[in-house]
Specification:
flat, mainly alpha, 5 helices
Length: 116
């Protein structure tokens, strides 16, 4: 460990190689292609599997986009190599925000149902 790393409390972390970044980019490309495919199948009644995919388009898109977000945050934002403190400061507010949004959606659905 050099003097700079010791002074700032950095440990030696294995940073991803360019090859790993290429693999992550390929996975992100495939996930994006799957998102486009799910959207297109869901909106075109003449395509095969439309009846199966159409009611699931939004959950499929949410899951795929969450996977892409996690990959980008872990590798391109270097959260995987950073201290767990930074990861927790980044992830926990997202979990809290998602829980609040989900609670508001449920509350709104209940309110709509109760008003009719």
């Amino acid at each position: 460990m050099d003097a700079h790393a010791a002074a700032h409390g950095h440990e030696d972390h294995a940073h991803p190689t360019p090859g790993l970044y290429g693999k992550i980019a390929a996975v992100l490309f495939v996930l994006t292609a799957l998102e486009v495919l799910a959207f297109e199948v869901g909106r075109r009644p003449d395509w095969p599997m439309h009846a199966l995919i159409e009611p699931l388009v939004v959950p499929i898109l949410l899951i795929l986009s969450a996977a892409k977000f996690a990959l980008v945050a872990m590798f391109y934002m270097h959260l995987k190599q950073d201290s767990k403190l930074f990861s927790n400061l980044f992830v926990w507010p997202l979990i809290i925000a998602a829980a609040i949004i989900l609670a508001l959606i449920v509350l709104h659905a209940y309110w709509i149902k109760a008003s009719f």
